[in-house]
Amino acid sequence: MKNYYVLSNGRIKREKNTIYLETADGVKRPIPVEDVDSLYVYGEVDLNTRLLNFLTQKHITLHVFNYYGFYAGSYYPREYLHSGYLVVNQVRHYEDSAARMALARELVRAAVHSMLRNVSYYERRKGTSEPRPLLGKESEWEDPAGEIDPSAPPPPLHSEDGAEVEAAVDAVVSADLLAEGLEATGEAWESAVDFDGDAPALAELRSVIAGLGGLIDGQQQVAALMGVEGKVRERYYRCWQHILGGDWAFDRRVRRPPDNEINALISFGNGVLYTACLGEIYRTQLTPTISYLHEPGARRFSLALDLSEIFKPLIVDRAIFKLINNGELKETHFDRGMEGCHLTDAGKKLFLNALDDRMNATIKHRRLGRHVSYRHLIRLECYKLIRHLTGVEPYRAFRAWW
Fold first, then answer.
1. pTM for the whole thing?
2. How far is CA 356 from the centre of its chain?
3. Which of 115, 194, 195, 377 is least enclosed by beta carbons within 10 angstroms?
4. Over the chain, what is the mean pLDDT?
5. Rounded to whole angstroms, how far apart are CA atoms 39 and 3?
6. Which residues are paired to 75 by β-bridges?
7. pLDDT band at residue 164, thresholds of 50, 70 and 90?
């Protein structure tokens, strides 16, 4: 089963016991219903309750995005895998502050680990601390695919079995600083590394990221933990000037509306990953509105936000690096206007193909002993969370080891 992306305007309907897309110019295209995992609608599309009932029967989620590619909402069919026992345990782990913090810390640890894998890869492959001067040019330190070489030795920050991010790096945060709170520790880490001007080297940024990661276990409130994660991600995005080069401007994260091409890619990709996580949660007994890192709220599936933190660097960011470093993305794939910067239809199609390729790529899972896709890794994360909530084994979030 796979995802289908609808970028054309027209109508989606049930016909002959399957799904058809009828475009605005009258072309009718079948979508084999037994092959559909989720539908992603980016165009202006009409549909009716007959189709929605059919999607419910086939357990197919439908995700809607607006003209600019921002996530608008989902048709989340009636849940067909019910477990009152699991719902009760999900709520208990949320209401118990210690239990919630244990899960939240593990999610952030895994997210930091994923970011450090990307930074360490480019630091190792680059072999220099100078920012890359040009876009889309192959060099002796980067392979054309922009992927990690499985045969390469692991970066020095991580052990062979994918252990947690080490806190012992170039600078040391004392226990006294941990007790003084996030603001003091953040300032200490800023001064712990001697940055040269406005463009610190990858090694320096990696040290700060790893050091901030060492503060995770010292946080006792979710808000403070989210503050650490935010500081880590801010420094992580500063690494992109080395990874992408000067032809693509990116100095800070701007969300709505994105102010440049890189922010447009990040916002678009994160929206796709969020719905992918939601789709995998739907195929388990988890309730998507009860979460542990992000605060549960109205009108959002916050558990999907929790899981997406782990996989953003591994799926969305690496897809962006590959497209840009291979020179596949051009200025013509973006549209700048009063509403910010957004992908054109051609840009959406190119990026969606890259994201789909990334999520369908496989790795050999160490524990299972077989190859699984990145998309299935998200499902496995749901299963591990279920085992934790039901007392089978403690949750250890996914960590890339290659």
1. 0.78
2. 13
3. 194
4. 80
5. 6
6. 62
7. very low
Domains of the chain with CATH codes:
2-75 (3.100.10.20), 84-389 (1.20.120.920)
Longest distance between any two alpha carbons in the chain, whole Å: 69
Secondary structure of the chain in HEC code, one letter for each residue: CEEEEECCCEEEEEECCEEEEEECCCCEEEECHHHEEEEEECCCEECCHHHHHHHHHCCCEEEEECCCCCEEEEECCCCCCCCHHHHHHHHHHHHCHHHHHHHHHHHHHHHHHHHHHHHHHHHHHHCCCCCCCCCCCCECCECCCCCCCCCCCCCCCCCCCCCCCCCCCCCCCCHHHHHHCHHHHHHHHHHHCCCCCCCCCHHHHHHHHHHHHCCHHHCCCHHHHHHHHHHHHHHHHHCHHHHHCCCCCCCCCCCCCCCCHHHHHHHHHHHHHHHHHHHHHHCCCCCCCCCCCCCCCCCCCHHHHHHHHHHHHHHHHHHHHHHHHCCCCCHHHEEEECCEEEECHHHHHHHHHHHHHHHHCEEECCCCCCEEEHHHHHHHHHHHHHHHHCCCCCCCCCCCCC
- For residue 388, the model assigns a pLDDT of 96
Tokens read off for 39 = 């539908």
Q: Which among 55, 73, 59 has a CA at the least distance from the CA of 14?
A: 55
Question: Rg for the chain (alpha carbons), in Å?
Answer: 22
| 54/33 Cα distance (integer angstroms) | 9
Number of residues that make up the chain: 402
Place of tokens 């995802």: 3
Pairwise CA distance, residues 273 & 375, whole Å: 10
Average pLDDT score over residue span 373-401:
93
C-alpha–C-alpha distance, residues 340 and 260, integer Å? 7
How far is it, in rounded angstroms, from Cα 250 to Cα 334? Answer: 15
pLDDT by residue (tens digit) across 16-64?
A: 889 999 988 888 999 999 989 999 999 899 999 999 999 999 999 999 9
CA dihedral 380, 386, 388, 389 (to 10 degrees): 160
Distance in angstroms (rounded) separating the CA atoms of residues 320 and 164: 26
pLDDT at 199: 58
Decide if pLDDT at 364 tops 90. no
CA dist 275 and 307 (Å) reads 11
| Amino acid present at 377 | L
